[in-house]
Amino acid sequence: DADVTQTPRNRITKTGKRIMLECSQTKGHDRMYWYRQDPGLGLQLIYYSFDVKDINKGEISDGYSVSRQAQAKFSLSLESAIPNQTALYFCATSRGQEETQYFGPGTRLLVL
Amino acid sequence: QKEVEQNSGPLSVPEGAIASLNCTYSDRGSQSFFWYRQYSGKSPELIMSIYSNGDKEDGRFTAQLNKASQYVSLLIRDSQPSDSATYLCAVNDSGTYKYIFGTGTRLKVLA
Lengths: 112, 111
Fold this sequence. Notes:
heterodimer
């Protein structure tokens, strides 16, 4: 049973469409993160949230928005998808500062 | 801009050998350090965390931390073909408590 789940696992969309990626966790962690990973590159932080009322931009937040609906849910939206947003997207959680991050299985997104 | 640097590799080692992976970081105030393994197309999974100077061993894996020199390393003993993956070093940012990831070192264990 997965502690951090992401839906959908794969998504194909067209340029200009708005899409949402969802993340849920049963670990009881306060902190949640969204990353993207491009082939051969490291993880780039998009947004992070330390609790339901605390949401912060990461290094590459342009073109993205997030919603923390509850402690266990953190959604990432692409307002108007573009081809260079084609990537693997990961959600992660951690219990507190300096604690281990745990990753979801990822969402593979293709923007045509 | 705080950074974590790793050699991208690939690092090729024969089966049964010791693989040595290295990572340097720029944030002198960092207190938490992590090694993740990532298979192609899969999510990163934690191998080791280390918080104090010195060595930390877990099975075939040993993490080494030297805060004065700002480096952290991972040794894999008796390397197996199943260890072939990309290894990501992550460091906790002392100011924001975000995690800064290196770009990873690709390890190939040759049977």
